[in-house]
């Protein structure tokens, strides 16, 4: 080898080493991003995450131990800043709320379903988001509207109890909790949106399409490495086909409702219009002209109604299932709750919405469930509205800011015996003063906090309270002999029981 070759080789090696060091450092460096695990050139931490073959939430749980309150992960071209400490979450979401209230750009597949970010959850912080959210709150969540629609819950709960009864009869006394709760909540939300009672079969069809939508919009490789997009043309084709099916499934409900609103007549027997004109969410969307968008068409209306059904079903059903899991395992807690319900409505009475609001132990059971099993371990992705800083580090406007809120409720500095399920802590103990909206401080925020807090958190709690109170009032819940409930978690949009809860029910 000539001397010149040797010089070129050594220079090449030095250059490669420098390039590796520069491009594989996550965080720190001249950009002053929060530190993070060292990644590989070009792909950052992406391959390391894929190779672990575990869901991202479980990887972050381990990384938090090493990197603490704020760290960066470089996932391909996507920079993610993960915030885990109570103080920083409160500072970003509440004290400096508007600064961190935006959402990052959507992937091309997500844009198909959000019709260009025309949904409350994905809209950037600005006039469109404000008008959509204001309309949602006025039309669905105000106390008057909740009261006006309480008959929908009464109807859905009756069907729920009948279904449990016949399922137990068919299976020899045991029932599966999750599927039934999901169907009930989904039917309530469909009726709130479209004002129509539809068959169980159609509800299941809508539910399965929305599940497919959630699956196809979950992060995929091109979201992190856009250069690979051309290789994923098939996925885009499938997404468009699914969007077509979603439209075919929901547009008839919209058209039927429109005919009902305009002509006051029930258009067909397949979907019976039951909410008075003005009481269904979709009625408000017919005339809405949100700032920055023309009058909404069927595409936008399908997106906005699907968002309500998707956002409200799995979150609430997951919580109901985990609560029942603990009540099955802990008969003492179940008895205490049963006694509270009987004291309020009698042994043969009917649990109504106004009753569950006056049940402090039920409230404590539901809060303890949300603490031990927050349905989401992260909030939805946030983004800063402009370049800013947090915890002494830079946060550029485009990056994904992820709030890892599950750690808050596992932190032994904030909760005594955090792994234990003890509703009493919310009556006397470390949970008494907890503010689940995070405004006064962040100890548990299952619904987020600040500007982007879940706008329907009280409605979600109402659905969960009603389901649990009705189920415990009517039946004693026991483990299936020889097959006790298994608390293993898995991720399926929310953190659910890996093996769905099955329980024996005995009429009280
Ligand atoms: C136990 C029940 C529920 C839980 C745990 C829950 C949790 C959450 C969380 C964590 C967020 C994200 C907050 C953030 O990004 O900072 C969110 C947003 C949202 N939720 Fe819920 N939710 C529940 C029920 C519902 C229900 C019943 C509905 C609809 C009827 C709903 C509609 C929404 C909407 C529209 C957003 C987007 C808000 C925005 O971006 O401004 N949620 N929810």
UniProtKB/TrEMBL annotation:
Keyword Oxidoreductase: yes
Biological process annotations from GO: fatty acid biosynthetic process
Entry keyword annotation includes Metal-binding: yes
Domain of life: Eukaryota
Entry keyword set: Heme, Iron, Metal-binding, Monooxygenase, Oxidoreductase
Residues that hold heme according to the record: 454
Protein name, UniProt field: Cytochrome P450
The organism of origin for this protein: Citrus clementina
């Amino acid at each position: 080898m000539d001397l010149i070759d040797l010089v070129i080789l050594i220079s090449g090696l030095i250059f490669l080493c420098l390039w590796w060091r520069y491009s594989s450092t996550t965080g720190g460096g001249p950009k002053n991003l929060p530190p993070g695990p060292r990644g590989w050139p070009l792909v950052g931490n992406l391959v390391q995450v894929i190779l672990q073959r575990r869901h991202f939430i479980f990887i972050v749980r381990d990384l938090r131990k090493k990197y603490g309150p704020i760290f960066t992960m470089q996932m391909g071209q996507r920079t993610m800043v993960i915030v885990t400490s109570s103080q920083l979450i409160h500072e970003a979401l509440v004290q400096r709320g508007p600064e961190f209230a935006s959402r990052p750009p959507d992937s091309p597949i997500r844009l198909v379903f959000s019709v260009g970010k025309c949904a409350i959850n994905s809209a950037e912080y600005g006039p469109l988001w404000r008008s959509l959210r204001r309309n949602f709150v006025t039309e669905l969540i105000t106390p008057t509207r909740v009261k006006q629609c309480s008959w929908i819950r009464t109807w859905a709960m009756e069907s729920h109890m009948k279904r449990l009864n016949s399922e137990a009869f068919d299976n020899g006394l045991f029932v599966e909790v999750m599927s039934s709760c999901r169907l009930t909540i989904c039917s309530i939300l469909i009726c709130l949106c479209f004002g129509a009672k539809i068959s169980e079969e159609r509800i299941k069809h809508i539910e399965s399409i929305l599940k497919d939508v959630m699956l196809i919009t979950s992060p995929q490789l091109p979201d992190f490495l856009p250069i690979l997009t051309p290789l994923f043309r098939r996925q885009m084709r499938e997404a468009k086909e699914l969007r077509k099916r979603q439209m075919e499934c929901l547009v008839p409900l919209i058209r039927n409702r429109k005919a009902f609103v305009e002509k006051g007549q029930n258009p067909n027997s397949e979907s019976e219009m039951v909410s008075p004109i003005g009481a269904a969410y979709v009625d408000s969307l017919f005339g809405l002209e949100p700032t920055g968008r023309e009058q909404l068409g069927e595409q936008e209306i399908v997106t906005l109604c699907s968002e309500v059904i998707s956002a409200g079903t799995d979150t609430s059903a997951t919580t109901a299932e985990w609560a029942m899991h603990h009540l099955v395992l802990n008969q003492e807690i179940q008895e205490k709750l049963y006694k509270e319900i009987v004291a309020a409505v009698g042994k043969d009475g009917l649990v109504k919405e106004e009753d569950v609001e006056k049940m402090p132990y039920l409230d404590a059971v539901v809060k303890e469930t949300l603490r031990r099993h927050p349905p989401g371990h992260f909030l939805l992705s946030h983004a800063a509205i402009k370049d800013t800083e947090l915890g002494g580090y830079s946060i550029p406007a485009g990056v994904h800011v992820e709030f890892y809120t599950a750690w808050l409720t596992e932190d032994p500095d904030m909760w005594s015996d955090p792994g234990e399920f003890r509703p009493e802590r919310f009556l006397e103990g470390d949970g008494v003063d907890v503010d689940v909206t995070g405004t006064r401080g962040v100890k548990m925020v299952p619904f987020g906090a600040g500007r982007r807090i879940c706008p329907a958190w009280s409605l979600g709690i109402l659905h969960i309270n009603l389901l649990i109170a009705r189920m415990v009032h009517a039946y004693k819940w026991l483990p299936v002999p020889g097959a006790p409930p298994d608390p293993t978690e898995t991720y399926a949009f929310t953190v659910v029981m890996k093996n769905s809860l099955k329980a024996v029910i005995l009429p009280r």
